């Protein structure tokens, strides 16, 4: 039988489920599961929904921009965009006048699908944030940003 190697915890925690990383992952998994279910009813995946949201905010983004904004690889973003284009939710030029980036835009059907999906996703977010006191939301968001920034390369 092997002995466990003791590595000091970065904060008081007697079990792995008490670690910040574990709790963040648990919350992210719960959010992803709820979003997967709600978006499936809209005929979308989470990355597709994220792309639609980004394009609504910033029309004309490139594949690389969308990949970064949705936390997927460029190759995965291409698959996502192909699915959205095949569904008639986006337009993507075959060629561009300048540079190599092919700008992407929402179609009217894309805007309509986004509205329905956004309603479902925002209801999930509302359920999630109602679980904490409203006065703590700004501090929670700031702390999450600070933790992400601390790990950024």
What would you say about this model in short?
59% of the residues lie in helices and 4% in strands. The chain is mainly alpha-helical.
Pattern of helices and strands: HHHHEEHH
* End-to-end C-alpha gap: 39 Å
Unreliable spans? none
Strand order of the largest sheet: 1-2
**Residue-averaged pLDDT:** 90
Main sheet specs: 2 strands, antiparallel
Rough outline: globular
Query: Count of helical segments?
Result: 6
The quaternary state of the protein chains shown equals single chain
Helical content stands at 55-70%
Tell me the structural class.
mainly alpha
**What amount of the residues lies in strands?**
under 5%
Cα gyration radius (Å): 20 Å
The tally of strands reads 2
């Amino acid at each position: 039988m092997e002995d466990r190697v003791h590595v000091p915890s970065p904060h008081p925690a007697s079990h792995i489920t008490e670690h910040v990383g574990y709790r963040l992952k648990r919350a992210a998994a719960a959010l992803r599961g709820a979003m997967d279910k709600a978006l499936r009813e809209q005929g979308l995946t989470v990355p597709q929904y994220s792309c639609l949201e980004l394009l609504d905010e910033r029309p004309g983004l490139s594949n690389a921009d969308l990949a970064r904004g949705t936390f997927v690889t460029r190759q995965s973003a291409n698959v996502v965009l192909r699915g959205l284009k095949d569904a008639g939710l986006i337009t993507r030029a075959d060629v561009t006048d300048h540079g190599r980036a092919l700008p992407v835009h929402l179609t009217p059907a894309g805007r309509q699908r986004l509205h329905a999906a956004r309603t479902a996703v925002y209801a999930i977010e509302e359920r999630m944030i109602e679980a904490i006191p409203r006065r703590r939301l700004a501090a929670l968001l700031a702390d999450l940003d600070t933790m992400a920034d601390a790990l950024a390369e």
